[in-house]
Amino acid sequence: MQLFSSSRVVGALLCGVLLKTSAIAAPLPAIPDAPDVDARNYVLVDPASRQILAAREAEQKVPPASLTKLMTAYITLQSLAQGRLKLDQSVPVSVAAWKAGGSTMFLQPDLPATVEQMIQGMVVVSGNDAAVALAETIAGNADSFVQMMNATAAQLGMTHTHFDNVDGLPTPTHLVSAHDIAILTEDIIRQYPQYLHYFGEKSFTYNKVTQANWNPLVFSDTTVTGMKTGHTDEAGYCLDATATRKGRHLIAVVLGSSSRTGSAKAAEALLNYGYNFFETRRAYSASQAIVTVRKNQASPAQITIGSLKDVWVSVPNGRYPQLTSSATVFQQIPLPLKRGQRVGTLILSMDGKEVTRVPLVSLQNIEKAGWFGRIVNIVRGLF
């Protein structure tokens, strides 16, 4: 579809366009390169802006180990939100779940466990048995659940991911990318905030066995809120770490570290880098008019365009006033037009490089004008 740049921008960045009133500009803060950390692959993401702040081979397909259970958890939380599961619901333990192998919460076929206990057993102590039991409860069998995992990954835009199982045991085609794990983590944070506390619990007790959370950062950094660890010989040590400092969230995904301590230090260094050298601001408010377009065939003729959600942008410290914005709208806008229907794109740039882009939508319902209405619109447009 053809695009054209609209010249009728009625909204400005909330910080304002700063006028250069001084011949000598203040020096900008120096921004170092991302730290060199012990990880084959990593990505640092701000979930508010959905921007990547730092990355190394973030799109490469690699084994995820138990980070796989983030998708198992995602579908479980989805089932809870949809009312298909209840936290206090008792879950049967099959022989397959009991004999899953690897890390375990020590399920037994004759010992009852609830959905909530299995969520804790899966995300806190990485129980493969819990992952299998939940998958069987939701989908009837693990193979059908894996189909759900891959379908969900496709829906979320995880284009470098393929799952073969529910727990992360290695196979040649069971692969993800660091960026895809960050995408999944973003959606868990956004869709299921009421369940996030499980990922940061420091220990879990079941069957008279107490196990500590495998994530070292939940003990050493009070700002770290979760999410998940993983390790196999093929994957190395993996860590998906979420943190909140002064109300701002960041996600650090590190894959292929040489040790558990190395993965924790890598994630911590990336988080510190993001918090120390980047800021995230709201550029536009939800439903704020960004562009107006006049169309005589429309009723009303003036179409107000913006975003139904807040538009956030992440930039290096001190660089926000350097942002520029440009809006494009479709050359042919279909009528009638529903509120929320996409009609263009907003691009925020810095130093001639695109920082982020956001879909623009109609902020109102627009009808197709009749012949009399068109004449009125044409006449009004002359004045």
Automatic annotation (TrEMBL):
Transmembrane segments: none annotated. Removes C-terminal D-alanyl residues from sugar-peptide cell wall precursors. PANTHER family: D-ALANYL-D-ALANINE CARBOXYPEPTIDASE, TRAFFICKING PROTEIN PARTICLE COMPLEX SUBUNIT 12. It comes from the Bacteria. InterPro entries: Beta-lactam/transpept-like, Peniciliin-bd_prot_C_sf, Peptidase_S11, Peptidase_S11_C, Peptidase_S11_C_sf, Peptidase_S11_N. Pathway: Cell wall biogenesis; peptidoglycan biosynthesis. This is serine-type D-Ala-D-Ala carboxypeptidase. Substrate binds at K228. Residues 278-368 form the Peptidase S11 D-Ala-D-Ala carboxypeptidase A C-terminal domain. It is an enzyme of class 3 (hydrolase). Keywords: Carboxypeptidase, Cell shape, Cell wall biogenesis/degradation, Hydrolase, Peptidoglycan synthesis, Protease, Signal. Its EC number is 3.4.16.4. One of its GO terms (biological process) is regulation of cell shape. Gene3D superfamilies: D-Ala-D-Ala carboxypeptidase, C-terminal domain, DD-peptidase/beta-lactamase superfamily. The active site is at S66 (acyl-ester intermediate), K69 (proton acceptor), S126. Residues 1-25 form the signal peptide.
